[in-house]
Amino acid sequence: MFIQSSRSEKEKQFHQLHHNDQLLVLPNIWNALGARLLEEIGYQAVATASASIAFTNGYKDGEKIPFDELIFILKRIVKSANIPVTADVESGYAANNSVLKENIKRLIDTGIAGINFEDSKHDEQKLFSKEEQSEKINVIKNTASDNGSSLFVNARTDVFIKQNHLSKEEKLAEAIGRGKAYKDAGADGFYPIFLKEKESLKIVVEEVMLPVNILMLPGIPDFDELKEIGVARISLGPGFLKYAINSMKIIAEKLFHYQGMEEITGNPVTTDYLKNLISEK
Question: Among 3, 28, 130, 249, which one has the highest count of C-beta atoms within 10 angstroms of its own C-beta?
Answer without folding.
Answer: 28
